[in-house]
Amino acid sequence: MENSSNTATATAIRPFRIEIPQADLDDLRDRLARTRWAADVPGVAGWTRGVPADYLRGLADYWANGFDWRTAEARLNEFPQFVTEVDGQDIHFAHVRSARADATALLLIHDWPGSFVQFVDVIEPLSRDFHIVVTDTPGVGFSGPLSGPGWTTGRIAGAFTELMARLGYARYGVQGNGGGAWIAGEMGRIAPENVIGIHVNGLVTFPSEDPADFAGLTESEQSRLARLQEFRDDKMGFNAIQSTRPQTLAYGLHDSPVGQLAWIVEKFKEWTDTASELPEDAVDRDTLLTDISLYWFTGTAGSSANLYYEMAHDKGAWAPRERGTVPTAVAVALPQDVAIRRFAERDHNVVRWTEFERGGNFLSLEQPELLIGDVREFFAGLDR
Fold first, then answer.
1. Rounded Cα gap, residues 266 and 283, in angstroms
2. Rounded to a whole number, what is the distance in angstroms from the first to the last CA of the chain?
3. Cα–Cα 20 to 30 A to 140, which of 153, 156, 253, 333?
4. Domain locations in the chain?
5. At 230, is the secondary structure helix, strand, or coil?
6. Cα gap 242→254, rounded to integer Å
7. How confident is the model at residue 1, as a pLDDT?
8. Res. 6: pLDDT tops 60
9. What is the pLDDT of residue 383?
10. Which CATH code fits 21-34+47-380?
11. Do 335 and 175 meet the contact criterion of CB atoms below 8 Å apart?
């Protein structure tokens, strides 16, 4: 029989505060200063083959000599944070209670290569109407490293369902971005009696093999379908590596801060509003480096990559499943997203569909006001 005191310890919710040792900051600056730089291929310009050397040199220099981690750390510590063990894995989260007595709880789930930092601009405004819970996904940031293999989307969804129950929330909403949208959808399937609504952005939808799926698509939908095909043809290198050999990749990213910087900043270039010439034109540069610093200081490049491996090797993730029943809202950033409504409605109970002319995958950082407004309007119309 399990000792009751051990059970209580495992399920305890422990206060958490970010306190990166000065030695780690000094080590980061030293490593950045000693970078062995790769050269661009002569005659090749732009981002077509990856992050340009001149751009990366400038960003690395700012990371070492301009970016102030202590300021970023203090900002993050303004949010009450906690850690609890679920299914043998530490889960880090921020928990901001609303002053409203009738507020509904809302769980926010980030995408890769994000973290709970992805929601820094929306936590306070949303907390006026919701009790906010913001997690680091298992294996990411202060929820890492992974305690072992098997952390599939379904298992993460189960852990987050347990977290919300542990916090005393019997009824709550979920907002997920990209990979977080997949987790949000799974939570609705696992606990439809608890999840009152699901709001997603950066949703990826796929056509079936039925030719009828392509009949009557609008010009905008055809453009999004072409964007999805382009992504699969030309921008899936990160996915192929992380889905097959994440451990091999981990050595380079764990040892080289410039390697980690390039690996993440490329995604912020490719997945943000196409009107943005550089990543920091879409997302504040200090916020971007806060997210990258969190991956570096926690050493979770490898464990975050392993989440792709688990997804790729989880047969249950790709098996036919029942259509979700929880009311779902889909926010689409037209410059970058690929979601098509008929495909989304096949898998989810879509009751709201909003299209924005601005933004990309990281909507909470790129266009926080648009996301905040859409989330408020959606949940205001639901039975709580």
1. 13
2. 39
3. 333
4. 21-34+47-380
5. helix
6. 14
7. 44
8. no
9. 74
10. 3.40.50.1820
11. no
Mean local confidence (pLDDT), 92-101: 96
The answer to whether the beta carbons of residues 309 and 285 sit under 8 Å apart is no
DSSP state at residue 98: -
Q: Check whether 9 has a pLDDT greater than 70.
A: no
Contacts of 319 (CB under 8 A, 6+ apart): none
DSSP-derived pairing of the beta strands 172-177 and 104-109:
parallel
With beta carbons less than 8 A apart as the criterion, state whether 310 and 150 touch: yes
Give yes or no for a contact between 199 and 331, defined as CB atoms under 8 angstroms apart.
yes
pLDDT at 245 over 80: yes
- Residue 175 backbone phi and psi in degrees, to 5: -120, 130
Q: Determine if the peptide bond prior to 145 is cis (ω within 30°).
A: yes
pLDDT above 60 for 244: yes
The answer to whether the beta carbons of residues 314 and 150 sit under 8 Å apart is no
**Full-model pTM:** 0.95
Nearest to 171 by CA among 190, 199, 197, 195: 195
Q: Which residues contact 256 (CB under 8 A, 6 or more apart)?
A: 31, 35
- Decide if 126 contacts 375 (C-beta within 8 A): yes
Say how far apart CA 168 and CA 231 lie, in whole Å: 41
* Secondary structure in 3-state letters for 178-221: CHHHHHHHHHHHHCCCCEEEEEEECCCCCCCCCHHHHCCCCHHH
- Report the alpha-carbon distance of residue 75 to residue 84 in Å, rounded: 22
Question: Is the pLDDT score of 183 beyond 60?
Answer: yes
Give the pLDDT band of residue 7 (cuts 50, 70, 90).
low
| Greater pLDDT, 8 or 313 | 313
